[in-house]
């Protein structure tokens, strides 16, 4: 079943990119592995999956130490400042940078530039983490001299029950904000990427410019009832 799901996801990503007039290699599929065990991750690695997203420190550290193959690790959840030192030099991407305090701790603890996405609360929901769109530019300027943080792009999550039109609007706003900020030529913030789209909405995100999609439940559909909210 894993093989079938992988092929289906790859085909859906390819079709969404083609629909948007984009090349097939313009998007990275991040497998959100936070609710599956190390054995399952190893099976995915054996089938060619190389990008994995985790947001729970114990789970990540266990898998990181057990996987011998070269894979790319993404930390996709909010990270407490006190836990930064335990994980920050073991990951390749961080998708939830949203405060000066956290950025300062990462810059202090990291031994080389870390590729980061600044989390943006496009929809303005009070329950969500992330900076409001108008606060992103001041934040980027504030951290522009941090040598160990490279802001490769912005990240957002759409509202859980958003309709198709609302999804397009959310992801388009993130893309437009990215393009607007790129013109500022902020040091250490190339902003060439965009992290948006999960199992239920990644095709729409890709149509609106996303380059990293975080897919969980679609990889494990035979157990879908056990993975409620997996990609969150």
Helix-strand layout with pairing:
Blueprint (H helix, E strand, L loop, with lengths): L1 H18 L8 E5 L5 H9 L4 E4 L2 H10 L5 E4 L8 H4 L5 E5 L2 H10 L4 E6 L13 H10 L6 E7 L8 H19 L10 E3 L6 H6 L4 E4 L17
Parallel strand pairs: 1-2, 1-8, 2-3, 3-4, 4-5, 5-6, 6-7
Summarize the structure.
This protein has 232 residues and is α/β, with parallel strands linked by helices. It contains eight helices and eight strands; from the N terminus they run H-E-H-E-H-E-H-E-H-E-H-E-H-E-H-E. The chain has one domain (2-226): Alpha-Beta Barrel (TIM Barrel).
Describe the structure.
The protein has helices at residues 2-19, 38-46, 57-66, 84-87, 100-109, 133-142, 164-182, 202-207, and strands spanning 28-32, 51-54, 72-75, 93-97, 114-119, 149-155, 193-195, 212-215. With 232 residues, the protein is an alpha/beta fold. An eight-stranded parallel β-sheet has the order 7-6-5-4-3-2-1-8. Strand 3, helix 4 (84-87) and strand 4 form a beta-alpha-beta unit. The chain is built from eight helices and eight strands. The protein is globular, with a radius of gyration of 17 Å. The longest helix has 19 residues, at 164-182. It has one domain: TIM Barrel, CATH 3.20.20. 40% of the residues are buried.
């Amino acid at each position: 079943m894993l093989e079938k799901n992988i092929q289906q996801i790859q085909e859906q990503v390819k079709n969404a990119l083609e629909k948007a007039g984009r090349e097939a290699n313009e998007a990275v599929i991040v497998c959100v592995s936070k609710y599956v065990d190390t054995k399952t991750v190893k099976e995915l690695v054996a089938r060619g999956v190389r990008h994995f997203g985790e947001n729970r420190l114990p789970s990540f550290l266990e898998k990181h130490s057990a996987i011998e193959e070269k894979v790319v690790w993404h930390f996709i959840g909010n990270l407490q400042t006190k836990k930064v030192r335990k994980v920050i030099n073991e990951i390749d991407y961080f998708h939830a940078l949203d405060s000066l305090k956290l950025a300062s701790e990462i810059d202090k603890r990291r031994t080389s530039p870390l590729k980061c996405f600044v989390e943006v609360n496009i929809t303005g929901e009070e329950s969500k983490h992330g900076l409001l769109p108008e606060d992103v530019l001041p934040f980027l300027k504030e951290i522009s001299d941090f040598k160990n943080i490279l802001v490769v792009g912005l990240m957002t999550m759409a509202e859980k029950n958003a309709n198709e039109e609302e999804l397009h609007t959310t992801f388009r706003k993130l893309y437009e904000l990215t393009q607007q900020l790129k013109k500022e030529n902020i040091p250490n913030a190339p902003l060439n990427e965009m992290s948006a789209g999960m199992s239920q909405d990644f095709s729409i995100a890709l149509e609106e410019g996303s380059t990293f999609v975080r897919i969980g439940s679609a990889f494990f559909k035979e157990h879908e009832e056990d993975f409620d909210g997996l990609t969150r």
